[in-house]
Amino acid sequence: MGPRRTRGHAGRRWPRRHRTGDTTRARPAPSRPDRYRRGVHVTGDANQRSFASAVTSLARARAWSMERARDAGAPKRVVDTVQLAMSEAFTNAVRHAPGAPTIDVRAVHRDREVTFEVHDGAATAPQRQSGRAGLPGGHGLHILDAVTSAWGWRPERGGGKVVWFTIRW
Asked: N or C end of the chain: smaller count of CB under 10 Å?
């Protein structure tokens, strides 16, 4: 019978050992740095991340933005608002910038406010949909209006645009 294996953090087997049964040698580090896993690329700045341009990255983008808001000292109601606003901004970026490999998200904290910038590859300006009451879709910019302190957009020099929103507390 081989070495006893126990469950560690997040259901991983711990300690990680080679399958040869040698319990004295730990498993070597993965060939890819952890920062490239699961569609997330961490830049040198802890307040900026690149996510894969896919709906499957939405949960990671929301969790990351909520963590930035908590780090900034935002109360729970503000963190919840950040979650909703990021959901709308990130979903719009995925939906309206097809073909872009990544969506870059940046967080900037100032005294009692946090601003998030969502960079995508589409150069077209965000447009509000009107007359869609009761229909799904087309409500993202109305939601940003309702829950954020301010929001806007600007074109990027190399193409694409940045949609930003600020939440104050």
From this structure: N
Helix and strand numbers, DSSP H then E, in the chain: 3, 8
Q: Please name the residue that has the structure tokens 């300006």.
A: 125
- What is the CATH topology of the domain spanning 35-168? Heat Shock Protein 90 (3.30.565)
SS3 45: coil
Residue ranges covered by each domain of the chain: 35-168
Per-residue model confidence as pLDDT tens digits over 63-121: 999 999 999 999 999 999 999 999 999 999 998 887 789 999 999 999 999 999 999 98
Give the model's pLDDT for residue 97: 82
CB 44 within 8 Å of CB 139: no
Strand-pair partners of 109? 114
**Alpha helix segments (H runs only) across 37-148:** 58-71, 76-96, 140-147
Whether 5 shows a pLDDT value over 90: the answer reads no
